[in-house]
Amino acid sequence: MSFTHLHVSTAFSAHYGVSWPEELAAAAAADGATALACTDRDGLYGTVKHLKACMAAGLDPVVGVDLAVFDDDGDLRTQVGGRVVVLAHGHNSGAGYRALCRLISDAHARTTGKAGGAVPVAVTRAELASRTLHPETLKPVLTVLIGPGSDVGRAMGGRRYLRPRTLFKRWLDAMPPGTVAAEVVSQLSPPGEPLSTAHAVRMLKLAAEHSVPAVLSNAVRYVAEDGAATADVLDSARTLKSLPELSAAPLLQPNGQAWLKSAAQMLQLGKEIMHAAGYGAADLKNLLAQTEALADRCRMDPVTDMGWKQPVVPEASVIGIAGDALAELTQRCEAGIGRRFPGITGKPAEELRSRLEHELRIIDSLGFAAYFLTVAEVSRMIQAMGVRAAARGSGASSLVNYLIDVSQVNPLQHDLIFERFLSRDRATLPDIDIDVESAERHNVYRKIFERFGSERVTLMSMQNGYRARGAVRDAGLALGMEEGEIGDIAKQLWRFSARNFREALEEKPELKEFAGRVGQRDFSGNQQLDLLVDLTERLDRLPRHISMHPCGVILGDATLLDRTPVQPSGLGLPMSQFDKHDMDPMGMLKLDVLGVRMQSAMAFAVREVIRLHPSKAEVVAAGAHPAGPDGTGPDYIAEDGSIDLNAVPLDDEPTYELIRSTHTLGCFQIESPGQRELIGKLAPREFNDLIIDISLFRPGPMKSDMVRPFLEHRHGFAPEVYPHPDLKPVLKETHGVTVFHEQILKTFDVMTGCGLARADEFRRALGNDGLEGRVEEFFRKEARARGYSPEVVDKVWGTLKAFGSFGFCKAHGAAFAVPTYQSAWLKTHHPEAFLAGLWEHDPGMYPKRLLVAEARRLGIPILPLDINRSQAEYRVERVAAGPDRGKLGIRLSLNGIYGLSGTELKRIVAGQPYDSLADLRARSRLSKPSIQRLAQLGAFDSLHRASGGAANRADLVHHLQTLQSRPHRKGIDVIDGQLSLPLGDVELKNLKAVLPAPTLVDTVRAELDLMAVDVSDHLMASHRPLLDRLGVTTADKLLALRNGTEVLVAGVRVATQTPPMRGGRRVVFISIDDGTGCVDSVFFHEAQELAGPLLFGTRLLLIRGTTRRTGPRGISISASMAWDLSRTETLPFPVPASGIPDYPELQPPGPLDGISRNLAITGLGG
Amino acid sequence: MGMFSESVDVVCAPSGQPLELNWAGRHYTVCAEPVRWYERRQWWAEERRAPLGSGPGLVDHEIWRVQVRRADSPDQESLTLDLTRHVGSGRWRLLRIHDALLPSRKPESA
Question: Exposed site from A153, A590, A1056, A1158, fewest CB < 10 Å?
Fold first, then answer.
């Protein structure tokens, strides 16, 4: 006998289900089941994974949802009567699945998409009824299971016999005939409680009484008994109540029996229910038969019901073409040749033609012409909005993409292979990713919805699973632990999977202290900590909620919303319940429209350039640009001074000089410590070098030691080696080292003649246990047949095997290298505008304050906050007076000041300029704390000076404070017209000079506290005497030291990274900034042990280590020990001759002292 | 109703249903059909560990409510007992006695 579970929540029922679809399907199949349902709560979140799992396990999938239904008697907007399971009928050309999708979208339509909304996800009974029949044939396409969670089931407590019956009849009255079944569930809870056999019996009898079919289920939440404890913790996380609280309520599951019981166990359960009901064997048989009959009705055909793997693209009419899509695409490519390759003739023209024909043939055979036209249309639309857009990813391998303006990379020039992107052997929709300015991303989304129609577009979602920090927080909440204690523990968890918590406790030095407390449970009653570790591990990776994917937009035809349920995203636009893994199986066309802050920063910089230099001549002069063909400057600068970044030639020597200097802070992709080290060693001379650099700086190549041989060959330290002369053309550009996917494809092709399309299939099989063996067999046989020696075959196979699975696609590298080059170009020629753009859009990995240091290094003045000059964004400004007179400086923005609201900001800017504080108060209606903060930051200094008052900033702040602490008096009433008297600021003028001016440390502290940026002075400056006493070496002096010198360095943390490393041992990179520059330090295993909790939790660090030369311009520190600089008593002061260490009192309070708020200054990440 | 937790020897039918038991030196037979359910445990307070893969028995335990009579004097009134079976060891413990007439021996309180 086999049994079909029709009510099963997977882990994708967030904060409810415990087990993954694969586990459930495998368990069901092992027990001999032929079908299995997936009925996640509120949506089809796990459905596609369920389909996959069922197909892999040889089961027929059943698809449904567990949905809340509004109480007809209650407030229809907020009150839920209960939950029902709705199953889609199958083998009806998708009618059941369509109805299910639409019903789920109905349930979400009234919600806000924001957390904590008042409106629950639920349908009205009328909505439910209206979806259950086929709109044309009026045959049932859905079945609603009225079970223990329904209003009927919930009314069964106590001795009210009439109530459940009334409610059940109400369902029967409301629903079309043949669409309702009773769900009989006993989880063997104590007699008379919910989910008890007694309740199951009452449901069974209700069904019999009304001649409604009854089905047996176990309302499954986990695959096996073991999941019950996890379900308890999830209940706690969902309800935000601790387990003791839930247990007292009582709101927990009555016991741990909601697992996927075997057919035999379900039969036994059925027997018990029948026995308790006083029914016989025939009735049991009937119950099970009805269960299987419903299961049969709901068996889905993934292909005919759900469109499995059948790509759907927007209708031709929508993308604006009348005829054949391929003909249109061909014609647009032809037009593109004239634009992209003007005047091309001869052999290059022939090559171009043959490549284009090759690509079009493949596109035609896959039927993807409309897809390319769709992407082109989106791309065109974005550019028409005036938004910077650039294709990234393997799409750059396509000449067609280049010709229709989707990509900015010429694949012929960089030798990119189309098959890496698309081939006949790969029927999945290819990925084309478009980077746009991050600040414009939402506008682009809205425009796409507008352009294609909201019935054809939806955002893609993503599943957010538990990681270590969230898991430990929720596990702690479940156990009822103190929030502070949990927070302290969570802070120390640094990027590892929660699944390995216990292992991490033993290994990770920063967890040593916590591990000790876990170990000591016997003595101090810390037994909860041990449970905490176990529960944290249980939560690992379980989905918590879905959210809008950062870039995915799904485009389809008018049937899109029949194929995916949608719900509001936080943005207000609808979002599919499917994630990126579901796209290809469901035939959905996904476009990645990625918001890239660097694109915004660059767009901002270009606008600043034009604002400051509104003509071509001025821009050319300011940026020291070449004279160009006619002596008036290059073509990429227009007459009005606007710069077409995409047209800037990729061979600007000053730009490469900047890159080689490793002063690449702020440049896209090449600003991290590791990248600066690599750039220093590689010393790029041309664009291809940048592509190689970006491709090398990946986990794969770093892990497998490809970088060192490459550099040795590049600089001629070691002769280039090729396994065989035939491979020289393939590997020449990387000096014999295999770096790119493209090279792997060509290697296969050269040595086996397999063709590039098959070669890409082989590449994908590398690293796959099942398939790699077959690839190896083929490779060896064919290569031997072509006369390659066994040694060559061995060697090349070794390389393919090692690098194949994680090499980098050159097309990706090329697409990435474009903004890298462009940002470096802007930094070279227009550093002020570029830095302003960086500040405004904050694209980098470092805290903003580090850019202040970079500005100082570049000699760019940072202009203080000024109530009349500062705007809502950073501005480049010509300095009017003082030592920097005539230079371009960057004026700080009013945006991002702690406590200053968006409305206040708007009002300040709208009312500028102000002639007095009274004027400011009257017109901007700033709150008193905001005025005081602005005063602390010096925003009124210029007003103050203008008033001729003798007091200083401290006096003003004090004055404002006393104003504030006085009992409330009625505003500063201003009578109309009074302000027009040019009195100057009487208030400021009359301030008494009493207090000493704020010290530099005070000023810097205020800046850090309120803006997270130290502008007036570097925050380390006041620590200088202490550092001198310790004998610390500054960053600018390091380069002059010999390799292997032991030094002490100190500074504020700016970055922490734990990149994957060769051999798998964790290495921690910590960069600190000491005011003279950045020091990059690396902590290997022993140093991590010694530094322990300081690794991730400390702002100011003192580090001891030895210098490590990384290139002609690069040096880093291999750390041996670290200290927390703010704990003076622990620091290693040199012992004086007297032998008695004297702890100096010379540590004045530093700028960070007393600020406990988490400031965005330290680059702690996570 | 008294609360206990003391060891009981139980003889079961192949289906797992209790038939006879030895408790406090006396032999009892089950005289009516027993009722079985699973009851929640406060595992977070009672257990020190709950690792993945602990298997059944962490969150709930199986309870059998049986009516028994002394085997040697079947005329005496029956007792209603709640028994639980430990998942790991398979051992039975007596959890509760429901009827007013307690046996002659004074139980230790739980």
Answer: A1158
Q: Best mutation site among B36, B39, B40, B42 for testing chain A: the one with the most A CBs within 10 Å? A: B40
Whether B16 contacts chain A with CB within 8 A: no
CB A597 within 8 A of CB A438: yes
- Tens of pLDDT along A322-347? 888 899 999 999 999 988 898 899 99
Report chain A residues whose CB lies below 8 A from the CB of B43. Answer: 229, 232
A14 touches B at CB < 8 Å: no
Tell whether the model's pLDDT for residue A249 goes beyond 90: no
Chain B's closest residue to A502, CA to CA, is B51
Whether B110 has a pLDDT exceeding 60, the answer reads no
Q: Which residue of B has its CA nearest to A525?
A: B48
Judge: B37–A243 Cβ closer than 8 Å, yes or no: no
CA distances for B72 relative to A8, A860, B69, B101, angstroms: 50, 103, 9, 18
Segment 298-327 of chain A within 8 Å of chain B by CB = none
pLDDT of residue A651 exceeding 70, the answer is: yes
Tokens standing for residue A209:
């009484």
Contact B18, B64 (CB under 8 A): yes
Residue A524 has pLDDT above 50, yes or no: no
Q: Do A257 and B38 touch (CB under 8 A)?
A: yes
Do A1047 and A1061 meet the contact criterion of CB atoms below 8 Å apart? no
Q: Which ipTM value was assigned to this complex? A: 0.89
Indicate if the pLDDT at residue A136 is higher than 60: yes
- pTM for this one? 0.82
Residue A40 near residue A331, CB atoms below 8 Å: no
Pairing of strands A80-88, A60-70: antiparallel
Residues 6+ apart with CB under 8 A from A398: A359, A407, A411, A418, A421, A422
User: Is the separation of the CB atoms in A228 and A24 below 8 Å?
Assistant: no
Identify whether the C-beta of residue A260 lies closer than 8 Å to the C-beta of residue A218: yes
Q: What is the DSSP string of A97-152?
A: HHHHHHHHHHHHHTS-SSTT-SS-S-B-HHHHHHHSB-TTT--B-EEEEE-TTSHH
State the nearest Cα–Cα gap between B57 and chain A, in angstroms: 8
Q: Are A1155 and A1008 in contact (CB under 8 A)?
A: yes
Distance from CA of B81 to the nearest CA of A (A): 15
Output the pLDDT for position A523: 47
HSE (side-chain half, CA atoms, 13 Å) at A892: 25
Element (H, E) at A404: none
CB contact under 8 A, B54 and A228: no
- Residue A399's H or E segment, with its range, is helix A399-403
Residue closest to A430 by CA, chosen among A459, A465, A406, A458: A406
Distance CA A715, CA A712 (A): 5
Chain B CB within 8 Å of residue A190 CB: yes
Residue A107 in tokens: 């349930």
Interchain pair B52, A530: CB under 8 A: no
